[in-house]
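Help! Submission page says 'invalid entity' but I think these are all valid:
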Amino acid sequence: MFLRSALSLWPLARNGTRSYSSTGVTKLVAVTVDDQTGIATVNLQRPPVNSLNLELLTELSSSLTDLEKNKSRGIILKSYSDAVFSAGIDILEMYKCEEERVTLFWSALQEVWIKLYGHFAPTVACINGHAPAGGCLLALSCEYRVMVKEKTIGLNETKLGIVAPQWFIASLVNIIGQRQSEVALTTGKMFTTEEALRIGLVDEMAENTEDAFSKSLEFFKKFKNISPFARAQTKAFIRESTIQALVKNREKDLKMFINEIRKENVQKGLGQYLESLKKRKVS
Ligand SMILES: CCCCC/C=C\CCC/C=C/CC(=O)SCCNC(=O)CCNC(=O)[C@H](O)C(C)(C)COP(=O)(O)OP(=O)(O)OC[C@H]1O[C@@H](n2cnc3c(N)ncnc32)[C@H](O)[C@@H]1OP(=O)(O)O
């Protein structure tokens, strides 16, 4: 009954799903809600590689707010592309960036992480493509990860000559533990799907996007006989200290980020990394 009235706020499409975007026009993030299950699919769609820029993050943030308000029954986060889940932060947001824009950008990333990591409903990352750095962070923020075989995932920041912030690190440590995280982070390790499965960085491996999506849907069935309140409150208790560590230090974290990326050697490294990306291709 409650679900019905909450869902009645969404426009109904013919195939039993409800689509919307917070701006009224679907752009970089498309949300569809299944009318039967109340499960929302949040599709990132910023070609070519879903790199995270201010506009995408702003849309994602307001989509998450809408889903929270509309009491969605669960979220599946996926990519429009079968090649890349998300290439992480758009390097152009850090390279030769203006102070005003970079401040908005980093604040939006913080906001998305806080909302996704703390979302009351169950969340699944359907990792249907490569997920380096910020792409990996989005996946780590969800409760469950299903990843298509023969892709890669990891926090590779040190390879770019930058340092993953504490909240990126905490997100990883909470899943694979301190020792594995230290090795992974200090070496900038990108795990194949198979390696990620072995260390518990992902929970399931899938053949392809369709298989990953149907495995993602299965996850929600675990909660069929669990009180949604008990589930959500337990998640909130478990995640509270990790979230609060950023919430209490947002300003400091922002200053540290801006300070770090403005360093001459960091700017030089980012410029070289961009150039190297343009020269290389990953199958
Ligand atoms: C002391 C306290 C410090 C506190 C804070 C300090 C520092 C802050 C830390 C900031 C954290 C940053 C996290 C990040 O997310 S950094 C971004 C890291 N991302 C990557 O390393 C991924 C790079 N990309 C790839 O590896 C590949 O593109 C791929 C994702 C595997 C996909 O490969 P493929 O399908 O072959 O596509 P292409 O490589 O051909 O790419 C197509 C196109 O897109 C451009 N591109 C790719 N990734 C990015 C990106 N992240 N940003 C901007 N542009 C990107 C690529 O250059 C191609 O462009 P062209 O078509 O123009 O050649």
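Support: the input was valid. A stray whitespace character was the problem, and the output above is from the cleaned input. The beta strands are 17-20, 29-34, 39-44, 74-79, 123-127, 131-132, 144-148, 152-154, 191-192, 204-206.
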